[in-house]
UniProtKB/TrEMBL annotation:
Record keyword Repeat present: no
Matches recorded under Pfam families: BatA (PF07584), VWA_2 (PF13519)
Alphabetically ordered keywords of this record: Membrane, Transmembrane, Transmembrane helix
VWFA domain sequence ranges: 94-201
Name by which UniProt lists this protein: VWFA domain-containing protein
Residue ranges of the TM segments: 6-26, 56-79, 715-733
The organism's taxonomic lineage, starting at the top: Bacteria, Pseudomonadati, Planctomycetota, Planctomycetia, Planctomycetales
PROSITE patterns assigned: VWFA
Highest taxon listed in the record's lineage: Bacteria
Species in which this protein is naturally found: Gimesia aquarii
Alphabetical list of InterPro entries matching this protein: Aerotolerance_reg_N, Class_I_gatase-like, Double_TM_dom, VWF_A, vWFA_dom_sf
Length: 756
């Protein structure tokens, strides 16, 4: 037998029991005894006095008990088991259904998918519930999604939401979903509380190897004042593990997310096969914006439980955002038969070159070689459109239309210019490349740009010089330090390559400590600055290039010069492709069009654009919620509801005049969901023994276990009934004493009367 209170703080009301006693003591009056002759005729008999005293004490006890009953009733006592629950019972219960929404629930090996079976199962179970019961639905994804806003008695509305659940996609985390369900039940009032988990027999979604998540579940269960029952069932039927066959496409990797027209882009991924055959030959299709390009179809041979790499190359002729896809023929698990990626194509990337050493002789300027490399005069359709300015011309207005800014040996900036650059990176998603030289004002750079709130947190130490060829000491780039994907193409050891360039001077730098997170923020709540990463190193182990990701943009620092003053890099053929790759890499930070689930979609929109002018659709072509934030540099569309993986579309609404162009975003997911390994008996036993999960097979089995269980019973109604009965008794006793004309005599007065 278990006994407890739903509102134990209300037990403090028991202190009110002392009120009748306090009133009684304060109301006692002191009388002066006056001796007079006729007093003897008014004296009460001993039996009468005793009766009056007993009735007074009884009245005091009743009033104290009335206060105690009110306090106990407000505390809402409940009991589980015992004789009381046999006579007082309630069938009202709060039920939370957790439906696994991962793409393994889309398995088509049976007559119906496990996801459809789970929805039908909930419909059938709701017929067993009473009108006083409440129902909640949680769509279990990577992060749980509460389908019903709160526990509800409106079963018809719940059925409607069930029928409109998104199809299974992505991964799921059942431990997180159970925690969400427990938190939901903490707001309910019924004593019977149930969580029913509907999933397939896959082990992955249970995360049995992560005890931290399950310890959190256990802590929440222990904190609950009312016991919560956990039930789980497999709705997928019996799968023949030996005969299952599945092909999976891995996540796509594109060589650049921002490119220009007619510039080749590489799209690579892997194809995995698991099945009964030792090897399998399958066709792999390539699509652009949903249109299959037949001439790019490839055939790949894959061994069982093995992977094969595959790569496509494509040139885009039209500007705008495009979605590329690698697709397989449909199998019994269609959720992993395709993989998508979004990339943006433009006519030319706008790059701003800030010349630190302007000169009437253009060949002597700091950006002469860089400008030739990025935009050759003979090229009528350049991929990059450069603009050269002096540092005094750098303003927030000129930054609005740029993708990348290159500071070439600029001695110093003003505080306003530094603030504009930082805003350009953090809010506009622009890229900044800083190349050092002999004009650098160390104090100003440290104060305005090289600090944790600036462009890159590092410390400029000293200018260093190579001892030179005469001492047999060539300072070059270490080939094995070029590990970043866009730099790996330059690792080749050949005479005119990037790694053959000689460096005579450079700045020695050290990375400053990362700024600690604010107390009210976490890494999952906001995408904060990361620490700089060393992506290229000189042969003397000094850093040559450091890259840092900001909230939206990127910063690249080169510790040597961009011209031929401190190195002979401009004389190398790799100088041109290196600068192009650097610009494309920095520009790709402007908009993150390929993100993971639950990461926000952030994209700039034309100034003064309102949310009513936009149409934002989720992967199921359903309207999704977004907001527009306005700043001095334009407007930004923001959406944080990305729990569903797939392609999101942002379009101008028909009938509105706006400069907004259609845009696309791809939300990726964990492909390990394709692992259909079932939950083992040992893992199931651990969940049962340590976390009190009960696994059942049929609805009848659950009904027998759930409804025949000893129920928890509230009996505050019984206490209120006793309260009403005692109130009647109190009124009767008070009326009796008043009508009798008697009152309890003080002890002193009674003794005085006896002496008369």
């Amino acid at each position: 037998m278990t006994f407890d209170f739903l509102n134990p703080m209300m037990l403090l009301g028991l202190l009110g029991i002392a009120l009748p006693i306090l009133v009684h003591l304060l109301s006692r009056k002191r009388y002066d005894v006056v001796q007079w002759g006729a007093m003897q005729f008014l004296q009460l008999g001993r039996r009468t006095r005793r009766k009056i005293r007993l009735e007074g004490w009884l009245l005091l006890a009743i009033r104290m008990l009335l206060i105690a009953l009110i306090a106990l009733a407000l505390a809402r006592p409940w009991v589980s088991g015992g004789f009381l629950s046999k006579y007082i019972s309630t069938q009202s219960r709060d039920v939370v259904f957790i439906i696994d929404g991962s793409y393994s629930m889309g398995w088509e090996g049976e007559a119906t998918t496990p996801h459809s079976a789970a929805i039908q199962w909930v419909h059938r179970f709701m017929e067993e519930l009473n009108p006083g019961d409440t129902v909640s639905i949680i769509d279990a994804r990577n992060q749980p999604r509460l389908v019903t806003e709160s526990p509800t008695h409106q079963f018809a509305a719940v059925r409607e939401k069930l029928n409109h659940l998104p199809p299974p996609s992505g991964a799921s985390n059942l431990a997180n979903s159970i925690s969400k369900a427990i938190q939901t039940l903490s707001t309910t009032t019924n004593l019977e509380r149930e969580i029913i988990i509907l999933t397939d027999d896959q082990a992955l979604c249970w995360t049995p190897e992560d005890p931290i998540l399950w310890e959190q579940v256990q802590d929440l269960l222990q904190q609950s004042a009312i016991p919560i029952d956990l039930w789980a069932t497999n709705v997928s039927g019996e799968r023949n593990q030996g005969l299952q066959s599945n092909l999976r496409v891995g996540q796509l990797a594109v060589s650049r997310e921002v490119c220009v027209k007619n510039l080749p882009v590489k799209i690579s991924t892997t194809i995995r096969y698991d099945g009964p055959e030792p090897t399998l030959i399958c066709p792999v299709y390539f699509e652009v914006n949903g249109q299959r390009i037949k001439e790019k179809t490839q055939s790949v041979k894959i061994e069982n439980h093995g992977e094969a790499a595959i790569e496509f190359q494509h040139r885009f002729e039209n500007e705008g955002t495009h979605v590329v896809s690698v697709v397989l023929d449909s199998d019994q698990l269609p959720g992993d038969d395709r993989s998508d990626a979004a990339l943006h194509v433009t006519s030319a990337l706008p790059v701003l070159l800030v010349d630190g050493t302007p000169n009437f002789d253009a060949t002597r300027s700091e950006v002469f070689f860089a400008n030739l490399a990025l935009m050759a005069p003979t090229n009528r359709t350049p991929w990059i459109q450069t603009t050269i300015i002096e540092k005094e011309q750098l303003t927030s207005e000129i930054l609005k239309n740029q993708a990348v800014v290159i500071l070439a040996n600029v001695d110093a900036l003003t505080e306003v210019q530094a603030g504009a650059l930082i805003d350009f990176v953090n809010h506009q998603g622009g890229g900044v490349m800083i190349t050092l030289g002999d004009q650098i004002d160390v104090e100003q750079y440290q104060k305005l740009l090289f600090h944790p709130e600036g462009l890159i947190p590092l410390k400029l130490k000293t200018r260093e010089t190579s001892s030179g060829v005469e001492f047999g000491n060539l300072t070059q780039i270490k080939s094995n330090s070029l590990q970043t994907p866009w730099l790996t193409r330059f690792r080749g050891e050949y005479a005119n390559g990037l790694t053959s360039a000689r460096y005579n001077q450079w700045w020695d730098v050290s990375i400053a400590n990362k700024k600690p997170l604010p107390d009210d923020k976490t890494e999952s709540e906001t995408k904060l600055q990361t620490a700089p990463i060393e992506i290229a190193q000189l042969s003397n182990d000094k850093p040559l290039m450091l890259l840092m990701n900001h909230q939206r943009g990127r910063v690249l620092l080169m510790t040597s010069s961009l011209d031929a003053d401190w190195n002979n890099l401009p004389a190398k053929p790799d100088y041109v492709p290196f600068l192009h790759e650097a610009v494309f890499e920095l520009s790709s930070g402007r908009v993150f069009r390929n993100i993971n689930t639950d990461e926000p979609i952030v994209v700039g929109v034309p100034a003064k654009t309102t949310i009513d002018e936009l149409e934002f659709l989720d992967p199921n072509s359903e309207p999704a919620t977004g907001t527009i934030d306005e700043s001095t540099n334009g407007s930004t569309f923001h959406c944080s509801q990305t729990s569903l993986p797939g392609i999101y579309a942002l379009n101008p609404k028909p009938g509105f005049k706006t400069e907004l162009k259609p845009d696309r975003f791809v939300v990726n997911f964990d492909r390990s969901e394709s692992n259909l390994t079932p939950l083992s008996e040992e893992q199931q036993k651990t969940l049962t023994d340590e976390y009190k999960l009960t696994f059942f097979k049929t609805l009848d089995e659950l009904k027998q276990a759930m409804f025949s269980d000893v129920s928890e019973t509230e009996f505050w109604r019984v206490l209120l009934l006793f309260f009403l009965l005692l109130m009647i008794g109190e009124l009767f006793l008070t009326r009796r004493l008043v009508q009798g004309g008697h009152s309890a005599l003080p002890d002193g007065l009674e003794q005085s009367n006896n002496t008369l």
